[in-house]
């Protein structure tokens, strides 16, 4: 063994070991002399023989050669390709075990932060944990003589064709296929990352779970399609359910999939969906939760945690199109929302009107900056709801919360690691976790877990 405790592993070396854990990416963990080896499609409790594929300084990767014992939680899925794609890395783990695993993950994060006293409830799951997504963004490429939609295998630029994404509303997958075939028939070119030529980059489809309204956005490097009229007519004919057809212009060489420049090719610039009895308008660039069934539970839990009395000033931070704030508006005196994407704020304002809500106000701003301003202006909310992206809250926002001193702080989180990090900082501002944390399975078959947590002033 070398000095840094690294066993002498080499590529293609074959070994046998026990899988003792599962990483956040859904890889099984085997340890050889304490050195971690990550193995795709292996589950805790399984004994496997495996071959090393890559050795790095502090860990290695391997692939399974043979399972010598099988976990009782393993299910044999027809969708095993979903592991390689990274779309559904937990597809081979029985659903109850997925829920238990997610709860345990949250528990361990609190434990590692020295917060053992924080109780974590069993994860709330779905009755039918597949085909739940109301939105997809699919890459499109010219391959083997035709336009292809599918997924990139990890670390590869080759698209593996796929028709059933397993997690999407089947009508969404069907629309992707139909639109791709029409575009193929008209010979529309696909963007090539190497030559930087060609037009089509992604197809985005979003469908209202209750309303069935469907939006298709064609993401392209140009502002116009060739034979545009005929293409639009053909899409309209083959997808008669389409409410909105958009050409989204994105010439940038970044990982950001959609640009901000949209042109309506047909129908409405937005779609509507209904959630918890409210009507929501959703634009192309607006965030809207991808699992409408569990989102209803999530918002109800958030409101329940806050135990609202009716006379509160509430802040809805990272408000998207205003969903959380508008949902709780009937249970408080006033809501002020803040969101950085201006078109989403425009949607929130329209959603207020459409639902005849008068006691809400939405501001387009960076949430941390707005919190600092509010704190300086002496704003004193009674309850603050935050629902930040994966990177969590910033220390500035947390300090501003310490100054504004809301009695209740409800944290809706899509990343337990940043949730726990922020809880530690909020404790330094005089807050404590007041009720057990509630994990909710917003993203079945994936490693992601959503949590709702309440903190109150000590
Ligand atoms: N509460 C909403 C949206 C949650 S997603 C819902 O449940 O649908 C997180 C939102 O935070 C996104 O709409 C994103 O645009 C927004 N966001 C990201 N960074 C932000 C920032 N610095 N300030 C304000 N909003 C931000």
From TrEMBL:
One of its GO terms (molecular function) is rRNA (uridine-C5-)-methyltransferase activity. Gene3D superfamilies: 2.40.50.1070, Nucleic acid-binding proteins (2.40.50.140), Vaccinia Virus protein VP39 (3.40.50.150). The keyword Membrane does not apply. Pfam families: tRNA_U5-meth_tr. S-adenosyl-L-methionine binds at residues 289, 318, 339, 387. Keywords: Methyltransferase, S-adenosyl-L-methionine, Transferase. Residues 13-66 form the TRAM domain. Belongs to the class I-like SAM-binding methyltransferase superfamily. RNA M5U methyltransferase family. NCBIfam families: rumA. This is RNA methyltransferase TrmA family. It comes from Oenococcus kitaharae DSM 17330. The lineage of its organism: Bacteria, Bacillati, Bacillota, Bacilli, Lactobacillales.
């Amino acid at each position: 063994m070398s000095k840094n405790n690294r066993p002498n592993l080499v590529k293609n070396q074959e070994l046998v070991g026990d899988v003792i854990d599962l990483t956040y990416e859904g890889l099984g963990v085997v340890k050889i002399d304490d050195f971690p080896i990550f193995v795709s499609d292996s589950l805790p409790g399984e004994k496997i023989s495996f071959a090393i594929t890559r050795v790095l300084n502090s860990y290695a990767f391997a692939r399974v050669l043979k399972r010598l014992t099988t976990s009782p939680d393993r299910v044999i899925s027809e969708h095993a390709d979903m592991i390689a794609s990274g779309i559904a890395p937990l597809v081979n783990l029985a659903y109850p075990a997925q829920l238990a695993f997610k709860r345990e993950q949250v528990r361990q994060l609190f434990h590692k932060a020295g917060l053992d006293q924080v109780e974590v409830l069993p994860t709330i799951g779905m009755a039918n944990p597949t085909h739940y997504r109301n939105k997809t963004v699919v890459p499109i490429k010219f391959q083997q003589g035709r336009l292809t939609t599918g997924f990139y295998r990890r670390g590869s630029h080759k698209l593996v064709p796929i028709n059933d994404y397993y997690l999407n509303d089947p009508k969404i997958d069907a629309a992707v296929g139909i639109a791709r075939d029409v575009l193929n028939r008209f010979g529309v070119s696909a963007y090539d990352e190497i030559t930087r030529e060609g037009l089509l980059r992604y197809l985005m489809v979003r469908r209202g779970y209750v309303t069935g309204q469907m939006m298709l956005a064609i993401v392209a490097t140009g502002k116009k399609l060739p034979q545009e009229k005929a293409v639009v007519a053909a899409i309209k004919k083959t997808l008669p359910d389409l409410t909105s057809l958009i050409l989204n212009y994105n010439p940038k060489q970044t990982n950001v999939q959609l640009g901000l420049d949209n042109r309506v090719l047909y129908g409405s610039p937005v779609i509507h969906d209904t959630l918890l009895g409210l009507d929501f308008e959703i634009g192309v660039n607006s965030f809207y939760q991808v699992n409408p069934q569990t989102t209803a539970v999530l918002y109800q839990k958030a409101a329940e945690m806050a135990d609202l009395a009716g006379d509160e000033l509430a802040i809805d931070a990272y408000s998207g199109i205003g969903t959380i704030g508008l949902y709780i508006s009937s249970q408080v005196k006033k809501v002020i929302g803040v969101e950085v994407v201006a078109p989403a704020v425009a949607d929130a304002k329209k959603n207020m009107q459409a639902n005849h809500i008068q006691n809400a106000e939405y501001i387009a701003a960076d949430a941390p900056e707005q919190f600092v301003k509010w704190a300086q202006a002496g704003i004193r909310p009674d309850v603050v709801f935050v629902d930040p992206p994966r990177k969590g809250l910033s220390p500035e926002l947390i300090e501003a919360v310490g100054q504004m001193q809301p009695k209740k702080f409800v944290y809706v989180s899509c990343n337990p690691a940043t949730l726990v990090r922020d809880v530690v900082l909020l404790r330094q501002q005089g807050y404590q976790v007041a009720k057990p944390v509630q994990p909710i399975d917003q993203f079945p078959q994936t490693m992601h877990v959503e949590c709702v947590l309440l903190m109150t002033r000590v």
